[in-house]
Design goal:
Blueprint: H1 3-24, H2 35-53, H3 64-85
Helix pairs in contact: 1-2, 1-3, 2-3
Length: 92
């Protein structure tokens, strides 16, 4: 399995978890760190983990397209789950 596929699965999991948290506890949208930043922080943490695990080899890092696509996957799932659940959550 490549890093990209693992990353996409990880971002799908993060998006589902953030969306579920927004449905279960809608008050977290008023937290000083907005939920879409949680997804962005998850991207940075995964990339930092790959960088440290592969002993700082630049050819093992994720491409910018993979990071952006993973971020979009996380955001879409984060927005889709509360919408489908009928929750009245504001994202921005």
């Amino acid at each position: 399995m490549t890093h990209d596929k693992i990353f996409f699965g990880y971002m799908a999991l993060v998006g589902v978890l953030v969306g579920t948290v927004l449905v279960v506890a809608p008050g977290v949208e008023e937290f000083f760190i907005k939920p879409y930043f949680w997804v962005l922080i998850a991207v940075a943490l995964f990339d930092a983990g790959v960088y440290l695990y592969r002993r700082n080899a630049p050819w093992n890092l994720l491409t910018m397209q993979a990071r952006l696509f993973g971020f979009v996957i996380g955001l879409l799932l984060m927005a889709a789950i509360p919408t489908l659940a009928g929750s009245s959550v504001r994202f921005f």
